[in-house]
Design goal:
The structure holds two protein chains of two kinds. Chain A is mainly alpha-helical. Chain A has helices at 3-14, 20-40, 44-76, 80-117, 123-126, 131-149, 157-185, 190-226. Chain B starts with 9 loop residues before the first helix and ends with a helix. Chain B contains four helices and three strands. Classes of the chains: A mainly alpha, B mainly alpha.
Chain lengths: 227, 110
């Protein structure tokens, strides 16, 4: 690694002092300018003074910019009451989704109990892969989906709730199919089936979040291109 | 009566002056500012881009989207930027003339 590249790597780390929004917009340009400055410094002594100048400027200007952004953010920050109300609403949404998951689980378990009582074989229930794991998965899916969907830009809180509820239904249905098929076809421990499903579901949730992110970000992207 | 203008900070004004010839990218702006000020104003990338951001937010300069050939962001004055530059230049010209006149009248005496 050349000396210039090493300096630029450290300089890039220094740029972390700037707010993320600013960095996203100007980081590449600042690195280019820094590279040009280093390139155009003729002697070793000049290079040293350029490096000192670069780092001094990055620290000083970075802290000042951070301070200005914080000042701007605090001026637009909602009141404490509104923040508390928002946090409470968020809590209610997560608990509500957890309860929803729990209820769905119970309803389905009852349905299976009836089937068993009516003479169905226990193989159909084998896919449940241990009641405790199922409970944990079901109660966890909806809030987990909700928390992950919070990262999707431009999505309102209630559309997040709807998506999370929908995903928990899908998640449960998927668990039944996967667990059922897994236990019936392959002789593996239940906890392994449950773990494999959890990993698969988590991956699917991530993909869905990315797709939704793109979907919700598209109008903004089009607007930016248009301007 | 003319409305009073709030003067731009020196670095912002120097960037507007540097962009008055043609659109430039960051490093060119830095070099032009240094040349215009006879090396009295030296900008680092941090100071340069925070000032650029302020000028963009105020609508005095605008960014030209980078092309495949350049890959750099160029900046140019907006009509509002030209107006502001003109207003500030008039102010500084008047101040310079006045101060020169007073220096001549008093012969540089304290």
């Amino acid at each position: 690694m050349s000396t210039h590249r090493k300096i630029l790597t450290v300089y890039k780390q220094c740029l972390r002092l700037y707010p993320a929004e600013f960095r996203g917009r100007y980081e590449a340009e600042m690195l280019r300018v820094a590279a040009d400055m280093l390139h155009d410094a003729p002697g070793k002594k000049d290079k040293v003074s350029v490096v000192a100048w670069l780092f001094g400027d990055a620290v000083w200007s970075g802290l000042r910019t951070q301070h200005e952004y914080n000042k701007r953010a605090s001026a637009t920050r909602p009141s404490t009451v509104r923040q508390m109300a928002r946090a409470a609403l968020h809590g209610v949404q997560i608990v509500g989704l957890g309860v929803l998951g729990y209820l769905w689980l119970n309803m389905l378990l009852f349905a299976f109990d009836d089937m068993v009582r009516l003479g169905a074989t226990r193989i159909s229930v084998a896919g449940l892969a241990g009641q405790f794991v199922v409970y944990a998965v079901m109660v966890g899916i909806a809030p987990l989906a909700f928390i992950m969907l919070r990262k999707v830009p431009h999505m309102t809180a209630w559309s997040r709730v709807l998506w999370a509820a929908g995903l928990s239904v899908l998640g449960f249905a998927g668990f039944m199919l996967f667990g059922g098929a897994g236990s019936a076809l392959v002789r593996v421990p239940d906890w392994l089936v449950a773990a494999a499903y959890a990993a698969l579901f988590y991956w699917a949730l991530l993909r869905i979040r990315l797709r939704l992110g793109r979907l919700y970000a598209t109008p903004r992207l089009i607007r930016n291109l248009w301007q | 009566m003319k409305r009073a203008i709030e003067l731009l900070p020196q670095v912002s004004f120097s960037i507007l002056v540097a962009l008055s010839l043609r659109p430039r990218h960051g490093y060119e702006i830095m070099q032009q500012v240094e040349a215009d000020s006879l090396s009295r104003i030296k900008l680092g990338p941090g100071t340069l881009y925070t000032t650029i951001q302020k000028l963009v937010d105020e609508g005095l300069i605008k960014e030209i989207e980078p092309t495949e050939a350049t890959r750099r962001r160029y900046y140019q004055l907006t009509p509002a930027g030209w107006q502001r530059l003109q207003a500030e230049s008039e102010y500084y010209t008047n101040v310079a003339q006045l101060s020169q006149l007073r220096l001549n009248q008093n012969g540089g005496q304290a």
